[in-house]
Specification:
With about 170 residues, this protein is an alpha/beta fold.
């Protein structure tokens, strides 16, 4: 599948694709995030998420949403490039943007079977967990891969760059 065709900008189209997958008996897994500066921790996490079902959908924060969450200096990588990188991963079946501060509306539209978040969350803090469970689905928390963090990568780049400037 062409990576660009995995990126769907229209929620109704994304909903229709998820519905087709579910009607075919496939389990749809959903996760979301900024995925700014994609690293091995992200890839491991997404592979583990995908292993829980047949299809993995990523709700990707738009640039404006990332700025509200992480500050004006972020994202480092623009949304279209982040989407392309994610779509190129074998584990990923669909990437859908969301502009809101949380993915709740997108989760309610797509109605995944499994909702997944990383180890810095607990089930009771995951946006959309109650909705997914109310529809018969379940929620999974996947531990982080130690040593990988976008924020730490950015800090290291800044530190190394500043040392070279001296």
């Amino acid at each position: 599948m062409n990576t660009v065709s995995k990126i769907i900008n229209d929620r109704q189209q994304a909903q229709a694709v998820c519905r087709q997958w579910k009607q075919a008996g496939e389990i749809v897994v959903f996760t979301n995030g900024c995925f700014d500066i994609l690293h091995a921790g992200h890839v491991t996490y997404l592979e583990q998420a995908r292993s829980l079902g047949n299809r993995l959908v990523i709700g990707l924060n738009t640039d404006a949403s990332v700025r509200r969450l992480k500050g004006e200096a972020r994202p480092i990588v623009p949304q279209e490039a982040r989407a392309r990188l994610l779509a190129a991963l074998q584990a990923v079946d669909m990437v859908v943007f969301f502009e809101e501060d949380t993915p709740l509306a997108l989760i309610q539209t797509l109605c995944p079977d499994i909702l997944v978040k990383g180890g810095d969350y607990t089930e009771d803090t995951i946006v959309g967990a109650d909705f997914v469970k109310s529809k018969g689905g379940h929620v999974e928390v996947i531990p982080f891969l130690d040593g990988f963090s976008t924020s730490k990568i950015i800090e290291k780049i800044i530190k190394l760059h500043c040392q070279k400037q001296k």
